[in-house]
Amino acid sequence: MILAIELSSYQGGIALLNGVAIRGERVWRDATARHTSFWPAMQALAAETRLEWEAVSMFAVGRGPGSYSGLRAALTAAAMLTAPGGQPVYAVSSGAVMAAEWFASNAARGERAVVAGDARRGAVWHALFERDAGAAQQVCDWSLCAASEFAKRVPTGAPVLTSEWERMARILGHYLSFDLVEQYPSAAGLARLARDRWARGVPSEPAEPLYLHPPV
Questions:
Q1: Pairing of β 58-62 and β 2-6
Q2: pTM, full prediction
Q3: 193 with 186: CB under 8 angstroms?
Q4: Pick from 56, 101, 160, 192: CA 20 to 30 A from residue 109's CA?
Q5: Three-class SS state of 114
Q6: Do 163 and 102 touch, CB atoms closer than 8 A?
């Protein structure tokens, strides 16, 4: 079984994947502190599913980009939960989860999508994904650009997926010349993507927040 923790956006979530089926899931909205809802949700999920911790073979964690405090809370929680049994922590970009879920549920809406968010300091973080045999393939590294330059990096016809729709609409203003779609990475989607990557022998991404600004 895989226990997935996704706290990168306003919508926090945890999910327990058993093979191909989601055995249990908790989702909540909290604009400021997703980690304060995490432990009560985890306790409720464990009780509902009668979870035996030794049956969890891997912990999947979304590493962003996104809320830095949420990402640190998710990675810290995974480290704590794996300490007794020594299960691996498998980190996946939350943005990759967003793209994978978008392509899975929008089969007729094009072959490319940009995942983006407000990086603060007048910048936007973003990466381009393409549909690949029904999955999502990231075709460039995560990068930053000025909000005024972002529209030039969006391919014609590609939607921009974001978990910060209001913030993005505000900072882009009259540069908003594309379809801006509200999309959140789910813990269930994270669990499935981690399972598929693990099965293909793809190594975990670094178990640390994906933070694009240089240290100051």
A1: parallel
A2: 0.95
A3: no
A4: 192
A5: strand
A6: no
